[in-house]
Amino acid sequence: MGMFVISKRYNGDYKFTFASRKGKTIFTSIACKQKTDCERMIEGIRENIASFAFTKNRTAAGKYFFRLSKDGLVLATSRKYSSEYSFSKGINEILKYVPVSETLDFSENEFVFPDADTVFEEAEQD
Description:
Domain DUF1508: 61-104
InterPro entries: DUF1508, YegP-like_sf
Organism: Flavobacterium album
Radius of gyration: 17 Å
Oligomer: single chain
Protein name: DUF1508 domain-containing protein
Distance between the termini: 39 Å
Largest sheet: 7 strands, mixed
Pfam family, one: DUF1508
């Protein structure tokens, strides 16, 4: 199963990614000023993925990627795929797992993992 992950960018905007069941990022959203915008977009994608358009593109180096859009508005851009087969596999994974995916919110955590020095200092105090 895949998952959506909400995080905060350095400039204070919010974004979300959709990661595969193996933890690899499949696509990254556009920047959002409010976390609630991310949450609404995730719900819209989760509930209506079949109504979204996947626009296929190629980089100058020949790699494939897609833009996820609704009514002409691009909401996310995928990672780069080396082959058309892996590109198709990525889209199939989205269609299969997005409707049942969970959402993780890391936007309030500055550091998900504590600093190693802090862990050692706390251990020494015990």
